[in-house]
Amino acid sequence: MPLERCIKPDRETVAGIWKIEENADDLIAGLELSPLEDQIVHSYRNMRRKEQWLACRRILKEIYGKNYTLAYNEFGKPFLVNNPETELSLSHSGEYAAAIISRSYRIGIDIEKVSDRIHRVKERFLSEPELRHTSLHHNTEELYVYWGAKEALYKINGRPDIDFQKDIILEPFDYLCAGQCFAEIRRGSKPGKFEVSYEKIGNYIFVYALGKR
How many angstroms separate the Cα of 195 from the Cα of each of 7, 150, 185? Predict the structure, then answer.
């Protein structure tokens, strides 16, 4: 299907969400892949993973609107080869893919399918104050906002030198089906404070984070 959602926090920042209803052949038919991108997509043996990557690429075609080549640095962070000054972040889960680009913010994005399994691992990524706050509500979707926000900030940091539990902290917030909260990277390559926006879309939680460049 075409781009399901387009979100514009400002005139230089655009996020898109794609619900994957096509197969890989249909998705690739709408793209002009560079030799590097063709190599990337044919490296995937899992068909669903290939479809997710192609859906991310389709989003970028819609929201960027220019010729570009998508590549990855040594830490797995994606970037636009012909325009490295434009920030970029990608995510996918199940039948959804998401992407965001910006020239004005440091950005990160995440989308996750909601499952009760997150209750079994929350102690691994929540700090003690965050655990105390979330234990008051026992809300599965709220836990996914925490996870998604921390994943988005981890992507902003861009290096594996920070810990979800100790180095990425969210301020307390009251969960709604769509809302905002605030978070901080306390150490790492790109410390700072960030505004986090989140939304429940079907059985998924979509999150993106913005911070000053």
Answer: 15, 12, 11
Task: Answer whether residue 190 shows pLDDT above 90.
Answer: no
| Two structure tokens written together for 79 | 């970037």
Query: Cα–Cα distance between 123 and 120 in angstroms, integer?
Result: 8
Nearest to 170 by CA among 145, 187, 140, 189: 145
Q: Which are the contacts of 103, defined by CB distance < 8 A and separation ≥ 6?
A: 12, 13, 85, 86, 87
Distance of CA 207 to the CA centre of its chain: 7
**Residue 67: Cβ-neighbour burial (10 angstroms; 0-12, 13-18, 19+):** exposed
- For the record, the structure tokens of 3 come out as 């781009």
Mean pLDDT of 156-174: 95
Q: Half-sphere exposure of residue 146, counting CA atoms within 13 Å on the CB side?
A: 30
Q: Tell me the C-alpha to C-alpha distance, in Å, between residue 89 and each of 7, 105, 122, 133, 174.
A: 14, 12, 24, 29, 26
pLDDT tens track for 103-138: 999 999 999 999 999 999 999 999 999 999 998 888
Domains along the chain with CATH numbers: 5-103 (3.90.470.20), 110-212 (no CATH)
Element (H, E) at 156: helix 140-157
Q: What is the pLDDT of residue 1?
A: 63
